[in-house]
Specification:
Number of helices: 4
Order of helices and strands: HEEHEEEEHEEHEE
Helix content: 10-25%
Structural class: alpha+beta
Strand order of the largest sheet: 1-2-10-3-4-8-9
Shape: elongated
Distance between the termini: 43 Å
CATH architecture of one domain: Ribbon
Number of strands: 10
Radius of gyration: 20 Å
CATH class of one domain: Mainly Beta
CATH topology of one domain: Umud Fragment, subunit A
CATH superfamily of one domain: Umud Fragment, subunit A
Length: 155
Amino acid sequence: MRLWRLVLVMALLLGVWQWSPIKAGVVLGGSMEPTLRSGQVILVDRRHYRAQPVRRGDVVTISYGGEVYVKRVHAVAGDTVWELRAPGTQNTIVRPDLRERVARVTQRLPGFGRLVPLQIPEGMVYVLGDAGNNSYDSRDFGPVFVSDILGLVRL
């Protein structure tokens, strides 16, 4: 009888944890450094976006290609991101204040790459890691669906 109670209590606790709005996770890799370090424990609020819109600057967990990533929202629906696309390199995000200067360089030096505007579609966001080029993010796989956001990381 005691074993049954123990099993029942354990199953109940597991169920509560599974359906809890807050999940714990561990950061793997350095793509969010210096904000988050590899091995750091994070809390993810899985219900935050039921009542709130996704905002620029939010640190979120996303599901992409069967993996879970921690990234920062760089742009939301309606925003335009300017990417410098050069063969053999990761796309580079060009700051708005440098866009004209970079455009002049790409016009004079065609091998330098090309500047491409990317308007973020409705229902999508553009995410980046904080560690610059040491990140697999929207520069590689493009915008992600808001529905693929698993939750807001609580720092």
